[in-house]
Amino acid sequence: MSNSSTSTARLLDFLKSKYPSAVPSSTSEIDLASLSHQIFPETSYSDNEKVETTQWLTTSSRLATPDEDEAKHAERLGSLNIHLCTRTTLLGSKPSIADIALYYRLAPAVKSWSSEQRTGEHGYHHIVRFVDFVQNAPLFGLSLKEEDKVSIDPNDIKFVHKPIDAKEEKERKKKEKAVAAAAGDSQKELPIGKGREETGAKQSKSGKARDVAQQAEEKVKGAVTGETPQQSKKEKKDKQPKAPKQPAKEAPLSPCLIDLRVGHILKAVNHPNADSLYVSTIACGDPPGTDNTSEYEGRIVRTVCSGLNGLIPLEEMQGRKIIAVCNLKPVTMRGIKSAAMVLAASPRLKEGEEDDHKGPVELVTPPTDAKAGERVIFEGWAGEPEGVLNPKKKVWETLQPGFTTTEGLEVGFDSGAVPQLQGEIAGKTTGMLVTINGGKCTVESLTNAVVR
What we know:
This protein is of the alpha+beta class. 32% of the residues lie in helices and 14% in strands. It contains twelve helices and 15 strands. Strands 3-4-2-1-5-8 form a six-stranded antiparallel β-sheet. Mean pLDDT is 84; it is low at 187-203.
């Protein structure tokens, strides 16, 4: 039996002993993710929270693996510590089976940590707090004996991280901006003979005085010349109508408009509400803060739903590199927002044949040395992708018929299959899908297939 299976079996035994009425003796590893509602029946969970719980169960099992690389283990602990710094539980404030699993698997390690590892400058303060909360909070009801708990001294704190007050931080930035603006104004050159503009009440009083003096001067001038003040003033020039803004030039139709990248599937699970869907956590090289991304195990990821359940075994989805379409407008699929699409090949239908959606299906595979986030393009169609494809323009739907596979099992773009590109294909052959280093993307066995 593998270390992971042994750890899960022991976790199930622990759960059965602590929650006998909620976790029957027949419960197996397959049922683990669904135990949250049985143990915490008064708590409701959204579809995204169910997926997140499953992901944390996987992370907890990896943290319990003794033969994991030390640097990778430290990275996982660091990411977990950051995640917990603003949360009471893994889901924020809701309890779940993932909290109990993480406690069970981490408690032995935390017991052996030194004070420096627990609360030192580079220690895991928030993990220690989380462990202490789970083992003592009535919310979880573990009823552990004192000798079974992790002994935590709340006064043994080696380093205190100063908390950032959001309001103070906002005020500080506001003051810095004001000081910078004032400094910029003080450095502006003034026309010769003019002082700086006065402000506030002083400016108001001096302005009124100038107006009175100017009116008196104009009256005297009018008495001498016979002109009215209005006649002596220069007439304002008629405002010329502004030229209308020219609309942005629309990029010509090309497969380069589609943002195709190498993706790394970190985790794939069954969709909680759809038998035909997988929910994958995929690193696509996005920078922090990108819309529709989140953090998982220290990496910026997208959540992607794909209709591959029953067509590709779930175990084959784990940890593999794929090609992702990254600039389609996100869509919600049975309660979970999907922020990309996984490219896969399937046989081309013959005329009159209907798609029974039974496969076979093969994922498009990038070169083995390709890195997550690396852009891939079709040879002969270089250019920059759109930010987000406008669904009304149907760029993907128009170009997708050109996505195909060759006799050599390479993925390419056949512009001849796209009627709208007929004027662009002179001298062009099928362009292969390649990385920036020229490595080709392939499928396992399907030739002349549809890729979508």
